[in-house]
Amino acid sequence: MSLTTNPRTTENPNRAVSQGRLPSPKRTLRDRYGDRAFNIAATTVLLLSILAVVYPLYFIVIASISDPNAVYEGKVWLFPSGVTTEGYERIFADSRIWNGLGNTVVYTVLGTAVSVSTILCGAYALSRKDMPGRKILMLLFVITMFFDGGLITKYLVVRDLGMLDTVWAVVLPGAVGVWNLIIARSFFEHTIPNELREAAQMDGATDFKFFFKMVLPLSKPLIMLMIMVHVVAHWNSFFDALIFLNDDSKYPLQLVLRNILIQSDVSSTGTTGGDIESYAAAQRIAELTKYAMIVVSSLPLMIALPFMQKHFTKGAMIGAVK
Amino acid sequence: MSRTIPARRGRRPVAAPLPQRKNSLSLRLKRISRAWQLYVLLAPAIVYVLVFKYWPMYGVQIAFKNYNPVDGFTDSPWVGLTHFIRFVNSYQFGQVVGNTLWIAVLGLLIAFPIPIILALLVNQLQSERFKKFTQTVLYSPAFISTVVVVGIMFVVLSPRSGLVNNAIQLGGGEPIFFMGSAEWFRPIYVISDVWQNAGFSMIVYLAALAAIDPALHDAAKVDGASKLQRIRHIDLPGIMPVVTILFILAIGNLLNVGFEKALLMQTPLNLSTSEIIQTYVYHAGLQQAQFSYSAAIGLFNSLLNLALLLFFNTVARRANQATLW
Q1: How far is A154 from B58, CA to CA, in rounded Å?
Q2: Are A223 and A216 a contacting pair, CB within 8 Å?
Q3: Interchain contact, A298 vs B146, CB within 8 Å
Q4: Which one of B76, B143, B194, B274 would you mutate to disrupt binding with A, by most A Cβ within 10 Å of its Cβ?
Q5: pLDDT tens digits for A6-39?
């Protein structure tokens, strides 16, 4: 990462120097106005983009604690009105959410463990230029980036393996992403010097010993990145669960959310019997619950985002270097 | 593998040809056996890729067969191109392929350039702090799940109580049932794609921009180049290789991306624009259990995709741009 931060830090003093000196004679007044206009335009565009990203999220947060009738009548714009926590209370009383959350945690932990260990071990082997057959083995993975068997045959394979309705159906079929494998491999290629290995081998270290005792401790940024990528992916995924799981007690949180938010399955969120008025009221409560649900399900990752950002930016750069 | 033999010959010119070949074979075996621990490390990944990638690939033959669970992939009876012909002749064919190409092309024309523009703008910001803040905010939606993003669409665009319709009514307009109308599916799809992913894609371009030699900018400044000129003549050419590679990759995934979102956004009312090849595969295959028919459609999709990728990679090579291989 020093690679990418260096130019930036060296750029600033340079810029300061060139601005500190007299402006170069060729630089006309019009150009500087042009630059200023550009700065204003660029800042405006970016501020508008920030607003476009933030406002819907902000609105959902305030709508989740506002009186549903005020939201319904369009009175909620900048501040919550008639603060209520009923939406959240309903979520926390909903056993489907808790059950889904529990499943998601299990799938996330297990899936991340399986994926990260498989990827790290495999990528290290592939990074070793002295492993015979390295190119062909790498090709075996790369081909799957450009052609795959498709949804149907994947489903049939998982079914034939007897994995339907088991944890393995959401953990294994997507375990090793080739892109992640390539990122990990190029990380090892760039950070583990050959001399280190030769020295270790001279001292009698086997490949296993070298990998576990030397390579892994030196690869903490990569390990962090891989863990985060997989935690986020598992936390957010719903599709494998949708096709491979029938038993709704095994549904992960995202699938529960889909059924409630998108399929509008309100069965346990409000009373459905009775007259039209109480039905309408139930509808509004259901909407309120949806806002609260969006907040609750996104909050963990949003809170973790500042901590994760550093690692993800690095990941993008490892990918770009490749 | 064959390339390693002449190299070894070169190293040991003294040995006679025949024993040497034997020698190189046993040498190679020795090297392979010496690396056994590496193969052990690689084994889980290999097993994974064989079981979950190549086995389904082997199973693609059911597109030309009438699959039944008893006979499995191998022994189900061949039927040739029947399923493909049925798909091409079905009334959905034109619609489904058209819908797929529509959102793919819209995505490429609109969602692909926006992260580049954002990166160029962010890169020009003077204040490091504002730069960082902008980055963080713009890329945060990438961490929201597709389910929740579509959930947000449903509540924010709701005709009864949604934010957008409240604003429309405030301005005196009639509420629009966005999620239930075929003509709004594509705009919503593309806009939400930009909203969610532009910031994240921007990061790669920012990394590429940071790698441009600042001396170029300083020299240009001394020559009186304006910011716009520097973007055009230094920044853009500087990130062009990355842009090309990502463009080719985007083409390679053209017909695959966004399937989950399209599926989630589908309502019975917008099917005429929201049914794309892959959602059709899902409906026909997994919901109606027409395995062979839908596998054929999936194969059609994969081949179309591969053809596009090869075509654009060749174009890029002709244009002397960076290529994938």
Answers
A1: 10
A2: yes
A3: no
A4: B143
A5: 443 434 444 444 444 444 445 555 567 778 888 8
- Cβ-based contacts of A276 with chain B (< 8 Å): none
> A42 and B143: CB-CB below 8 Å?
no
CB contact under 8 A, B37 and A72: no
Q: What is the pLDDT of residues B127-136, one digit of tens each?
A: 889 998 999 8
**CATH number of the domain bearing residue A169:** 1.10.3720.10
Length of chain B: 325
> A240 in a domain, yes or no?
yes
Cβ separation of A262 and B242 shorter than 8 Å? Answer: no
Residue count of chain A: 322
A130 in a structural domain = yes
CATH superfamily, domain B84-318, is MetI-like (1.10.3720.10)
What contacts B48, CB < 8 A, 6 or more positions away?
A118, A172, A175, A176
Kindly report, as residue ranges, where domains of CATH 1.10.3720.10 are found in chain B: 84-318
Contact B121 A42 (CB under 8 A): yes
- Residue B215 near residue B129, CB atoms below 8 Å: no
pLDDT tens track for A176-234: 999 899 989 989 998 899 899 999 989 989 999 999 999 999 998 899 999 999 999 99
Residue B176 is encoded by which pair of tokens? 């629009």
Domain, as residue range, for A143: 95-267
One-character DSSP codes across B45-98: HHHHHIIIIIHHHHHGGGGGB---TTTHHHHSPB-TTHHHHHHHHSTHHHHHHH
- Across the range B155-161, mean pLDDT stands at 83
Residue linked to tokens 């926390």: A92
Q: Do A156 and B152 touch (CB under 8 A)?
A: no
How confident is the model over A128-149, as pLDDT tens digits?
Answer: 998 999 999 999 999 988 888 8
List the beta bridge partners of residue B65: B78
Q: How large is the C-alpha radius of gyration of chain A? A: 27
Contacts of B121 in chain A (CB under 8 A): 42, 45-46
With respect to residue A229, please indicate whether it lies within any of the assigned structural domains: yes
> pLDDT-derived band of residue A274, with 50, 70 and 90 as boundaries?
low
Does A108 reside within a domain?
yes
**Interchain CB distance below 8 Å, B53 and A148:** yes
A305 to B217: CB separation less than 8 angstroms, yes or no: no
Contacts of A302 in chain B (CB under 8 A): 140, 143-144
- The dihedral formed by the CA atoms of A94, A100, A103 and A109, expressed in degrees to the nearest 10: -110
CA-nearest residue to B195 within chain A is A53
Angle between the N-to-C axes of helices B36-49 and A134-146, in degrees from 0 to 180, rounded to the nearest 10? 20
pLDDT at A275: 66
A74 in contact with chain B, both atoms CB, cutoff 8 A: yes
Q: Virtual CA dihedral for A179, A181, A185, A191, nearest 10 degrees?
A: 90
Confidence tier at B20 by pLDDT (50, 70, 90):
low
Instruction: Give me the number of domains chain A comprises.
Output: 1
**Dihedral Cα B263, B154, A58, A50, nearest 10 deg:** 50
Residue A258 to residue B264, Cβ atoms within 8 A: yes
Say yes or no: B59 contacts chain A, CB-CB below 8 A: yes
Which of A69, A118, A152, A294 to mutate to probe the B interface, most B CBs <10 Å?
A: A152
- Inform me whether the C-beta atom of residue B224 falls under 8 Å from chain A C-beta atoms: yes
- In 3D space, the residue among B130, B129, B141, B239 whose CA is nearest the CA of residue A46 turns out to be B130
